[in-house]
Amino acid sequence: MRILPEVIKNLFRKPFTHKYPYQPIVLPHGFRGDFSWDREKCVFCEECERICPVGAIRVDRGDVKKFEVDMGKCIFCAECEKACPKDAIRLEEKITPVEIERSRTIRKLQ
Ligand code: SF4
Ligand code: SF4
What we know:
The chain is an alpha+beta fold. It has a single domain (27-109), classed as Alpha-Beta Plaits (2-Layer Sandwich). The chain contains 3 helices and 5 strands. The strands form 2 sheets. The protein has a 3-stranded antiparallel beta sheet. The protein has a two-stranded antiparallel sheet with strand order 1-4. β2 (57-60) and β3 (66-70) form a beta hairpin. It is elongated and about 70 Å long. The mean pLDDT is 92. The structure holds iron/sulfur cluster (2 copies). One iron/sulfur cluster binds at residues 42-48, 59, 83-84, 86, 88-89.
């Protein structure tokens, strides 16, 4: 019966959860979210690919330069952002869109 006061108290409390995406949420400052990459700044040095602990980044510095990030693997540690000598990577303060199919988590950035 000790649980009864707790139950009654919680009936009148606001919920701890947010109804996202139906209600907007305020993200805390420094939130590591959606991945952005700036081709103009990138020098294809591959430092981000080397430092990524989960192998989510692929840099191809061949004739046709390419940059890919697999958001299905990314753990949002921001090591790539810190390591980039050109400030080309940002983990934005916004939520990453969810992909249902595994094959669609790889972003080929240009
Ligand atoms: S570390 Fe920065 S400059 Fe180097 S390949 Fe990655 S994004 Fe480009
Ligand atoms: S945030 Fe971390 S896990 Fe994600 S791509 Fe960068 S280094 Fe890799």
